[in-house]
Fold each of these.
Amino acid sequence: MWAAVGLLVIFVGTIVLTAANDAVHPPSHIETVDPAALADSPEYGNPAVAVRPDGSVVVSVVTQMYSFSPDPIVVPANRPVTFRVTSADVMHGFEVVGTNANAMAIPGYVSQFTVTFKKPGEYIVGCNEYCGVLHHNMVGKLIVRKESR
Ligand SMILES: [Cu+2]
């Protein structure tokens, strides 16, 4: 029995340590949007990359069977990029392959997270939630541009 308790302490300790060390935290942003009225939404009617006055970048993304919009998404390197992802139909995934940018796109909700891409280049955006017969074709592109100042 003590071995089982010891294992529990090790497992829980591992979770606490890695969460604290790698700043892992559960999603905390709660915002709703009408999935049937996305076309009339000022933000999602024409989803795009926007630059705020403070220089930070906001990307509004609509996922739907079987594409991402905008596509490609072009963002600068070494600047915080806030993604605001939602879905127009069913649940999708939004994952920038090879980075820690990864969220669920849930109809009715806005999934928001901020990432700074350090390496310029082209990244694959994939849907990682099975969303229908053509799920495997749901691929987009993210281009991280080196900033010229
Ligand atoms: Cu999918």
Amino acid sequence: MTTDVIEAKNLVNADPVFGQLSFDNHEQIVFCNDKDTGLKAIIGIHNTVLGPALGGTRMWQYKSEWDALNDVLRLSRGMTFKSAITGLNLGGGKAVIIGDAKTQKTPELMKRFGEFVHSLSGKYITAEDVGMETEDMDIVREVTPFVTGISESKGGAGNPSPITAYGVFMGMKAAAKFKYGSDILEDKNVFVQGIGNVGEALVEHLVNEGAKVTIADISQERLEEVKSKYGATIYGGNDIYSEDMDIYAPCALGATVNDETIHKIKADIIAGAANNQLADELKHGKLLQERGIVYAPDFLINAGGIINVYAELENYDRAEIMRKTENIYNTTLEILENAKVNKLTTHNAALNIAKDRIETRRRENAN
Ligand SMILES: NC(=O)c1ccc[n+]([C@@H]2O[C@H](COP(=O)([O-])OP(=O)(O)OC[C@H]3O[C@@H](n4cnc5c(N)ncnc54)[C@H](O)[C@@H]3O)[C@@H](O)[C@H]2O)c1
């Protein structure tokens, strides 16, 4: 259900929340509004069977409230399965703030948002996502303890993005091992789409390994910066999906594997950091499987960030964070092999394991 297909006069007949296609029995959805600071946010709590719902806050200029709601529903659901498959005792949640992070984000707005998080008494724990920085979480920390991803100087584990990038790199190597029989990425043609916090750190790993890296971003400034640091090639074309490449790494926003792009993609492997890369998990997962494109499930390989923030709750040290993140390699390889043997899409193979873990805990909790 989207705004495109509903005329204004028919809106009254729509079920705008529980009727959304992306609604998946979410436990709680909280709409937050503050006139003074201009805050408009939605907190989505998908599932808390394994623990409190932890997931970052995204600030984005959504085209409509529907888009924002849809995003928070999809993202919070993804967090449930990400934590479950990574073996963390966390549920899935996420928050979106509607607005331009560059011009509308103020300390007052972040504090007010933190108060809304606090009002949930720990059922939802926040962290940073797109449009948020560690310093923003430090501000949220002034009004609630239910926040992670705060600065190291304030007792946090710091910016999770480099750890996320390392996990994506591990997942990509596992996918290469599965596809090519070797996990060495030297000379592989890798396109990184979105060179923000995670994308840049991924480029660094890839360049160090000798991969041929092409970068794409909507920000020319970022492209120049990353090119000058690592010597990557800036993508000059206008349809990245049609390009010849070995590996496509989506590291910007989600749903880039969709009805329009999927038939053009020539990559052998898709492995990136973006959440919800498949616009339609079932349909596009199946199409990738049929076309022999190895898809490393996003919620599995981009879990480094959540491992990093989980460390703040469990007091892990750096070595344990790195060990757990490195293990993404083994889990990815196991899931790709499991999918092949059981003739499943890789997404479903990963999802089944995550769902089993939640179901087992649900039964234990019930006894
Ligand atoms: N930061 C983390 O630890 C983490 C963890 C898990 C998942 N993710 C996901 O990874 C992705 C990247 O996260 P990030 O923290 O690097 O975000 P970021 O905001 O730092 O970077 C995103 C980059 O993508 C670029 N971009 C936006 N739209 C684009 C487009 N259409 N084409 C090309 N580039 C585009 C932006 O200009 C920016 O440089 C997001 O989807 C995020 O949800 C991040």
Amino acid sequence: MKRIIVSACLLGLKVRYDGVSKENKDLLALMDKFEFIPVCPEVFGGLPTPRVPSEIKDGKVYNKDNVDVTENYLRGAEETLRLCKIYNCDTVILKSKSPSCGKGLVYDGSFTGNLIKGNGITTDLLIKNGIKVYTEDEFLKEYVDSN
Ligand code: SF4
């Protein structure tokens, strides 16, 4: 069974900044087809749950109180990459729009809900290391199209 690392919030774990999950029932329905391994880069990076929300600005990450939390995000990305290597996992599914897990689109750093092109910190590191990153919607579409 193929192993895939998945954002923990998508699997129903309450690790998001606001202390809830973003459970994706369509992904959970595939648990008998894939071995999903949950990760939360922000928790891996030493941040608490709940936590002050953060966004990327000029390549760094700041929370809404304007505290620079870039180091936490970098550490979470490194630990997620480490997990990919431990599990010999070449594919991940990461939650869209997150400053850690987003792919293609992230919030612009103004905390106004505006999205701009870009990747989350973990997504960026994994892509640079040759790991295939899907958003949840991309993965589900590809799965449906190929089955
Ligand atoms: S860092 Fe990723 S896994 Fe953790 S709550 Fe945010 S989107 Fe979900």
